[in-house]
Amino acid sequence: MVESLAKRSLRKVTPYAADSKIKGIPLDANENRNLAFKLNDKIAEAIMALDISRYPDPEAKVLKKKIAADNWINEECVIVGSGSDQLILMMIQAFINEGDKIVTPAPTFSMYGISNGIAGGETIQVDMGEFFSFDFYKFIKRVNKEEPKLIFISNPNNPTGGMVDREHIIKLLENFKGIVVIDEAYYEFSGRTVMDLVPYYPKLVVLRTLSKAYGLAGARVGYGVASKEIIGILKKVKPPYNLSVLDQQAAIICLQNKEIFQPSIEEILEERLWLTKALGSFPGVEVFNSYGNFLLIRLKGAKELYNYLQSKGIFIRHFNEGGSLANCLRVTVGTKEENRAFIGSLKEWM
Ligand code: PMP
């Protein structure tokens, strides 16, 4: 089964010369391939109509208008980035000077610390313990002590899958002078958002991406929503042509056809439940409840399992950093077939 799936992936996935994943089942990057290529024809048709000799619209007006309308927000409160990775970097470039601090819960998405490091900022990671549940009082105590310029919260949290409650985000916004960035890259799988709070809290920034639920990781499109003041500052560090005409067009087509994605999101939620139960039935495997399209597990011999799966053409994520992530692996919720292939190989390894 694994071999036949691998062959199918080989046909479906665009071949990158340097990409060893090409021969396998990629469950390592939280992409959504369940609906792969359903919109390719429409995207291709729209791209054919573009004049690629012209520079893209630096304001990405059509795309921003769609995002603003979908989120009931003023267009001046929206900014687009080449993936939300670029928006994270832009937040740091705009607000962090050498020696300034950011605070994040730990473990979390690595790009906050990486981007901050490039700017010479200091990253304070507040350890959320071995069960990864968000400890608000520990977090706010540290925030008050460190007085950071920015707080980054991945909600749901990559890689643990947990969430910070809305009430705690509101308390943070009301008790902290700096900017709170809520990264909702996996929003479509959690159904929980604080986007509606943006008009009330001028220091709240919400980040979203089309790389996950909308299956557009290859095009690189993310967006940020915040007060006009914050967006105005971000515009000063935004490279004018950060989104190509192709990126913008692909994103517009995706957002205009949102309904196409709904069944696949629902399937991922069903599969997340199936995988959670299947993984939990193995003795010695700890599974963490997830609101994203991925699951974190902890088990003895995680690195060996990771290597074994790789030898079978199944790619998942292993963490080298140790600490509470020691012996942890993160697996993307894939298609039904991919998830069964993964569990089948896990059974063989056990
Ligand atoms: N935020 C989080 C929490 C993520 O997990 C990721 C992708 N791994 C990103 C942001 C960046 O996504 P992209 O740059 O593809 O929009």
Radius of gyration, in angstroms, nearest whole number: 20 Å
Largest sheet: 7 strands, mixed
Helix content: 40-55%
Shape: globular
> Strand-residue fraction?
15-25%
Structural category is alpha/beta
Distance between the termini: 18 Å
DSSP, total strands: 13
Spatial ordering of strands, largest sheet: 2-8-7-6-5-3-4
Mean pLDDT: 92
**SS field, number of helical segments:** 13
Low-confidence stretches: 1-18
Give the SSE string. Answer: HEHHEHEHEHEHEHEEHHHEEHEEEH
Ligands bound here? 4'-deoxy-4'-aminopyridoxal-5'-phosphate
Task: Please describe what this structure looks like.
- GO terms for molecular function: histidinol-phosphate transaminase activity; pyridoxal phosphate binding.
- Belongs to the class-II pyridoxal-phosphate-dependent aminotransferase family. Histidinol-phosphate aminotransferase subfamily.
- It catalyses: L-histidinol phosphate + 2-oxoglutarate = 3-(imidazol-4-yl)-2-oxopropyl phosphate + L-glutamate.
- This protein is an alpha/beta fold.
- It has 13 helices and 13 strands.
- It has helices spanning 2-12, 40-48, 61-70, 83-95, 111-118, 136-146, 166-175, 187-190, 228-237, 245-256, 258-280, 302-311, 336-349; strands at residues 25-26, 78-81, 101-106, 122-127, 150-154, 179-183, 204-209, 222-225, 286-288, 294-298, 314-315, 317-318, 328-332.
- The strands form three sheets. Strands 2-8-7-6-5-3-4 form a seven-stranded mixed sheet, sandwiched between helices.
- α7 (166-175) links the parallel β5 (150-154) and β6.
- α4 (83-95) crosses α9.
- The chain is globular and about 55 Å long.
- Residues 1-18 have low confidence and may be disordered.
- The structure holds 4'-deoxy-4'-aminopyridoxal-5'-phosphate.
- 4'-deoxy-4'-aminopyridoxal-5'-phosphate is lined by residues 30, 83-85, 109, 154, 158, 183, 185, 209, 211, 217, 222.
